């Protein structure tokens, strides 16, 4: 009898839903979702699909309901619905998250990791995606990769509870990966991170008594409410189109002051230009400017930079500091006092090296050390700058881009042109958010395949290097608009370039490329093409123009002002 009553109730419910207006149907669905009445919500979605079969967004709603009714039993049906939705909304963060959860809850950890990597392809690497991958790796018993991802996730700001859980799972991962010594060291350093000493865990590790079955309940699952916010690229400062902070221009036009002017200035001012003021030290009353956000101390004669950084550490609102042309030979560790700093420019200041403490500036979004010819390398602690957006080391003595740079996931611009760079790390492919990469005028011979993973890259300057060929993966850079490969060692046109459908500007001059394929004309968005001033024939040029009349082709010689050989062998 009870079975028949249930059937009658379901029929009545279905009939009621069919009689609802579209507006009432949406309200009923939303109310059902809020009250976790997933079967009723599913009936609303099914009715919606009958009325609007082409509304693809309803397939997401249907997948959501099915997952919450029974994630295991409905796994395949959830997957079918979410794939229909994602075919139309490929970059949907909520769709990708639901697909990840569907795999994760069904112990399909390899597939869930692949889904996170798709999320990173569209949105870049973030703390939450690292944590999602770490959890999946851990449950998949891939403890080495789990330890790496947990390690990376600890470098992002977190609540103390969340940080503690991530840190502990980093310890467990190292232990179960066979790195008992590393697990012991991390346990010993718990107090350094504000956590309590854990002698019990230390004892278990030393006695080799940790049991994997005790740690299979992974905390801090990805939540849909905050997910879209957590995966978004974080931009700490406002930049112009050349990736210079807006503060630079504001300070330039700000009337220059002297130390004598300070006592008469408004204590609430936000910008202060003290450049070229013959300053040897700042007076103690600088600390009264509690709302000061940007300060220019360039072209002065500061004697004690350790004292200076300690003074500036007392300015609670300071976000941007310029110390260009300051002859800062020895960089003191007291730079760590500037914890609120978001932008730091120390150009042409005779720097020999950056201190490890630069890695403590967790809010730093912009770092420029351009035109410091004596600096040979960046410190490995650069990897801790998880909010770094723009790195400028152009005109320096830098001989490589460290692998650790590839761990600064929020980078959008790297300028390392006119330096002495010989190698690009394979980790460059981790920088999913990178828009501009300038490596021109260096000593680079090969480009790593991983460069093809930088999906959002729009500008790539590789001119004036020692490159003979491009990796085939370069064709994956479908957002690339500007490519410069002039004055290298190319002897034939790199055919991969023909796949770059959004390319607008291409520089090829001063190479030993005797002929250009007419298919260049099929790049419909290409408007500017710079070719060799002597090698390419008029006939070849006309053939390209016949394909695309909008291309402005210029014979260029980039060596005419500097002299020397016109082409490399």
Automatic annotation (TrEMBL):
Coiled-coil regions, chain positions: none
Record keywords, A-Z: Leucine-rich repeat, Repeat
InterPro entries, per the entry: Leu-rich_rpt, Leu-rich_rpt_typical-subtyp, LRR_dom_sf, LRR_domain-containing, LRR_R13L4/SHOC2-like, TPR-like_helical_dom_sf
tRNA processing recorded as keyword: no
Pfam families named in the record: LRR_14, LRR_8
Domain of life, source organism: Bacteria
CC terms in the record's Gene Ontology section: cytoplasm
Domain (Disease resistance R13L4/SHOC-2-like LRR): residue spans on this chain: 358-438
The protein's name: Leucine-rich repeat domain-containing protein
Protein source organism: Tenacibaculum pelagium
């Amino acid at each position: 009898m009870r079975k028949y009553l249930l059937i009658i109730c379901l029929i009545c419910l279905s009939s009621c839903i069919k009689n609802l207006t579209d507006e009432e149907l949406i309200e009923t669905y939303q109310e059902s979702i809020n009250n976790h009445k997933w079967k009723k919500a599913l009936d609303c979605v099914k009715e919606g699909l009958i009325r609007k079969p082409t509304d693809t967004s309803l397939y997401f709603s249907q997948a959501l309901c099915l997952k919450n009714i029974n994630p295991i039993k409905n796994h395949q049906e959830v997957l079918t619905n979410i794939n229909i939705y994602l075919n139309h909304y490929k970059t949907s963060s909520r769709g990708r998250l639901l697909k990840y959860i569907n795999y994760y809850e069904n112990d399909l950890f390899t597939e869930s990791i692949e889904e996170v990597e798709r999320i990173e392809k569209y949105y870049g690497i973030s703390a939450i995606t690292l944590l999602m991958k770490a959890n999946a790796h851990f449950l998949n018993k891939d403890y080495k990769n789990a330890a790496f991802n947990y390690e990376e996730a600890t470098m992002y700001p977190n609540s103390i509870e969340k940080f503690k859980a991530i840190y502990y799972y980093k310890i467990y991962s190292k232990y179960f990966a066979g790195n008992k010594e590393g697990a012991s060291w991390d346990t010993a350093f718990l107090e350094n991170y504000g956590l309590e000493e854990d002698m019990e865990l230390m004892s278990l590790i030393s006695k080799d008594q940790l049991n994997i079955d005790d740690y299979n309940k992974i905390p801090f699952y990805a939540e849909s409410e905050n997910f879209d916010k957590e995966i978004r690229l974080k931009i700490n400062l406002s930049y112009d189109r050349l990736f210079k902070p807006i503060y630079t221009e504001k300070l330039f036009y700000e009337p220059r002051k002297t130390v004598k002017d300070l006592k008469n200035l408004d204590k609430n001012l936000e910008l202060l230009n003290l450049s070229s003021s013959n300053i040897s030290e700042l007076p103690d009353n600088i600390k009264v400017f509690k709302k000061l956000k940007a300060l220019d101390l360039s072209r002065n004669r500061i004697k004690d930079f350790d004292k200076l950084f300690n003074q500036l550490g007392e300015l609670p609102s300071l976000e941007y500091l310029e110390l260009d042309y300051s002859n800062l030979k020895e960089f003191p560790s007291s730079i760590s006092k500037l914890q609120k700093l978001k932008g730091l420019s120390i150009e042409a200041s005779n720097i020999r090296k950056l201190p490890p403490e630069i890695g403590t500036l967790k809010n730093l979004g912009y770092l420029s050390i351009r035109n410091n010819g004596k600096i040979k390398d960046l410190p490995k602690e650069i990897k801790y700058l998880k909010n770094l957006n723009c790195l400028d080391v152009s005109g320096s003595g830098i001989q490589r881009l460290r692998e650790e740079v590839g761990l600064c996931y929020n980078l959008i611009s790297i300028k390392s042109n006119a330096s002495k760079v010989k190698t690009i790390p394979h980790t460059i492919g981790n920088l999913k958010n990178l828009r501009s990469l300038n490596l021109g005028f260096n000593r680079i011979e090969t480009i790593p395949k991983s460069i093809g993973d930088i999906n959002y890259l729009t500008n790539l300057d590789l001119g004036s290097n020692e490159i003979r060929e491009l990796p085939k993966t370069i064709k994956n850079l479908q957002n690339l608009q500007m490519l410069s490969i002039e004055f290298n060692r190319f002897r034939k046109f790199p055919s991969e370039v023909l796949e770059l459908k959004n390319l607008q500007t291409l520089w090829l001059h001063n190479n030993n490329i005797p002929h250009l394929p007419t298919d260049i004309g099929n790049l419909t968005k290409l408007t500017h093409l710079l070719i060799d001033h002597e090698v390419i024939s008029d006939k070849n040029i006309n053939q390209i123009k016949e394909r695309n009349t909008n291309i402005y082709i210029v014979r260029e010689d980039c060596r005419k002002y500097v002299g020397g050989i016109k082409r490399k062998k």
